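Format notes (please read before filing issues)

Several people have asked whether sequences and structure tokens are stored in separate files. They are not. Every record keeps both together, in the order shown below: the sequence lines, then the token lines. Line labels are part of the format and must not be stripped during preprocessing.
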Amino acid sequence: MNRADRRKWAKAYRELEGIQKRNPQAKVIGRQEEATPDFSEVTNEKLCQGIVYILNELRSRGYRVCDFDHKERSLQQIQIMGENIYFLAAPEEEQDGEKETD
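Then the structure lines:
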């Protein structure tokens, strides 16, 4: 490890310490430049398809994406209709006294 590498690691560590002092529960994934990929060339259809895959994966892990205003509603699907993008946030259904997210 050369001097430039040590400086880079020290700077990243100082930034991490500053973030954690302001918000102790914050989880830092990486530097901002690395964490924001460029999706400007990706079509809307592919972006929505990716969101659907992520929703399905989160659902399979037991997580649900909730609405801020209506906490009982969770995001179920996203579709493109015409030139607009719509989402469906439905309330959870109860079966046999247990809540079901699917």
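For reference, the curators noted about this record: Helices lie at 3-22, 32-35, 44-60. The radius of gyration is 20 Å.
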